[in-house]
Amino acid sequence: MGACRGRFASRTPDGFQAISAGKYDYRGYAVPSKQYSVCGGYPDALARVGQLLSQECEAVDFMDINMGCPIDLVCDKNAGSALLRQPKRMEQIVRATATALGEVPLTFKTRKGFNDGEDVAHTFLHKAGEWGAAAVTLHGRTRQQRYSRLADWDYIAQVGRNCATTGLQLVGNGDVFSYTDWNAHMGESGGHLASLMIGRGALIKPWLFTEIKEQRHWDISAGERLDLYRQFAAAGLEHWGSDSRGVESTRRFLLEWLSFTHRYVPVGLIEVLPQAMNHRPPAYRGRNELESLLGSDDPQDWLRISEMLLGPPPAPISFAPKHKSNSYASPPGGASEADMARG
Ligand SMILES: Cc1cc2nc3c(=O)[nH]c(=O)nc-3n(C[C@H](O)[C@H](O)[C@H](O)COP(=O)(O)O)c2cc1C
Predict the structure, then answer these.
(1) Which residue, of 131, 218, 238, 331, has the greatest Cβ tally within 10 A?
(2) pLDDT tens per residue across span 9-40
(3) Does the beta carbon of 161 sit less than 6 angstroms from any atom of ligand 1?
């Protein structure tokens, strides 16, 4: 996401622009924004981070506080989702950090509530602008819920309406996987959402943003998909270096990514469009060998794809993804810490 100084995202008729990038160069290409996502539970510590960012770092676009992280490691330190149990502390954090940041906009991300059946965000989020936040992202799930059940877009729309009365920009988040999801959620909100945030959809099908912009389901070919992975590998080698260490770092990150990308089911093969985020598709045969390979959920096949792009590893390796269920819906209590992701 991008941001403009003093204003998080412009409320354009083309909501996509607001989420994809706030700045463009002379050719009209998006300029990457400098944003800092931080987690913490204490106003003084976060205000200090804000002060450092505004005084020591150049051209910071915005600072975001993650107040939605579900993992125990974070919540046990009174940070992330734990702050949903202490709205007063949340307010103190936002006030102190926004003051320390000065001109640099502050945003934060949170959830409906901590426990199921105890939604609380609607009771205070509309006041966040008064506290000093430029925008807030709301993931329509509780911490307890993890990825089980669908995100609650009725709730997000309700909070969006409340926030609109105070002028706060609310960004909705949860399960957006097609341009029709985008249209439905932006429409349901009655124009009260500033934009939407996309998590897993961007990992599984990075061309989702093009689909939203061009308002179509893209039947992307397996070759085009492999080209994207090739670009990823090239960027990895540029970043980590093309020595054996750089290649293996690139491979590790590529494999993590492939543990998400295989979930995509080609538009030309799917019976009912669009594919839904929570739908775990049955195994299928692609229209060619490469398409079948890219849809495989077998880590050995992800290794094969990595070998096509990076060559064989120096010694045989095994791979188990960090996000073991790749953030599919998991029954409460059934997901590992890593499965729950971080927001
Ligand atoms: C691999 C992965 C990493 C994530 N990391 C973060 C993070 O660092 N900060 C954050 O606020 N949310 C993080 N999240 C949560 C997402 O931003 C998002 O809130 C959640 O996945 C629901 O949106 P989605 O249905 O579009 O994926 C992460 C999710 C995944 C799958």
Answers:
(1) 131
(2) 443 334 333 333 456 666 666 677 789 999 99
(3) no
